[in-house]
Design a protein that fits this description.
BirA Bifunctional Protein, domain 2, YbaK protein, 3 domains, five-stranded mixed sheet, 15 helices, globular, binds zinc ion
Length: 575
Amino acid sequence: MKVSRMYAPTLRESPAEAEIASHRLMLRAGLMRKLVSGVYSYLPLGYRVIRKIEQIVREEMDRQGGLEILMSALQPAELWRASGRWEDYGPEMFKLDDRNGREFCLGPTHEEIFTALIRDEVRSYRQLPLLLYQIQTKYRDEIRPRFGLIRAREFIMKDLYSFDRDEAGLDVSYKKMYEAYCRVFTRCGLSYMVVEADVGAMGGTDSHEFVVVTEVGEADLVFCKKCGYAANVERAECIEPPVTDLEDLKPLEEVSTPDMRTIEEVSGFLEVPPSKLVKTLIYIADGRPIAALIRGDRELNEAKLKRFVGAGELAMADEETIGKVTGAPVGFAGPVGISVDQVIADLEIKGMSNFVVGGNAEDLHLRNVNIERDFKVDAYADLRNAVDGDPCPRCKSPLTAAKGTEVGHIFKLGTKYSEALGAKYLDENGEDHLIVMGSYGIGITRTVAAIIESNHDEDGIIWPMSVAPYHAVVVPINVTEQAQNDLANEVYERLNAAGVEAVLDDRDERPGVKFKDADLIGYPIRIVVGPKTLKSNQVEVKLRKSKETQMVDVESVAEYVTEIIRKELEMLMPK
Ligand SMILES: [Zn+2]
């Protein structure tokens, strides 16, 4: 490809809206352009990268026996109603009506649609197991699209669904996908972590996220440097801390806290650290009010609370309920004298003494509150999000908190969808059973962003060879010099003939401009043809990543470059 014929409009300045490196660099390097918030057009170089990642994904899915199909983004509401997700999915789902008033959505995922396909076609155990996948565009009406391809409203995803006879079969499919995902991300040049994840709205039992640690990310995680444990903060287990120096119980005290409702306000006013405060959060669990107690400086994890109480539905109580159970306006709830069905305290509360709580009356807090003496706890449970420095639940070493970008997510769904949609098969004895399912997603466009987040410097992108839009760029210093131009063309032709994906920067621009663009776009190999190289019949080959340079004879440049590419691809290949 000649750069004069290329459509890759680069920008010198960073667009103001782009907050993170991948977003900034994709716009600056001319890989994509914004259509509207959270929706992008992929330009030639950007789309080449996407296609390369897709190809890696295809190869690894096929390797495990996956079969590629393609389904529509347009999905009828009936199937989503059958699974109960039409309402549950919430405002993130793009919904629309056709001219006859029939309801549709633009699919954020495809569990229902794949299940319906299978239900109508698969009859016998002989047709199972089945691994079907597609690479397709998905939609999610994000409340605040941000960070370019990391939180977009339209994105490309690979989603595979496994259909098995039983749990044992699902275990096999799950393992295959786990392995496939490791291979995909390794080949993309990403260093990733596999973390235990919460199953959330998908339903099911087991779930793992493939996360790339990045400076800015969607996922909050903790990991142990010693034993390798890693989990999403929502999922990470918090173990009970040892009780150290319990204080002597001081007499309970009422303190007036006019208009002090938040932890910060109360803590500042009473001059006690937030860790000496206990928050009382009122929830409605399947219709009954409960109170959850948590240290003032911690964050309650609703998923953990929901799991612990075994509630089908859990929501923060409304103002009226809070008024009823506490007898006070919002902001002054406390466990002393509260009328709820159950008081559940986080494990950390067990070891606390003489703490501060809300007084269940307007403008009132209580000081020196103690469990047993002043109120009863019905149950202790792990209710909070893990934080940096918490002991590892496996080996007790301190955990490290990090931000990450989730690039892949695998779920054991079990029979949630086959049951809702009636997907069954007949076994050897003619008895029917529900098909056991798994669902496995890779965010293709998000993977592009994650690769850039972890492979760039101040000059631009540094593509791993496997996903680079082109392997090499040939840069003649001065195209108006015929001899230089001829030599650059010769080198370019030699590379093409050897199967190297090469670009010739034949623009009549200053060399500085061309070098800047080459670094910004991030071609792994740059080959410079200048007056000096002309005399020696050698060209300068420079590697983007290591910045190493080497003078190479024109006759052997194709062989030299091919060897670099081969080695780099081999290094990215999983063992
Ligand atoms: Zn550990």
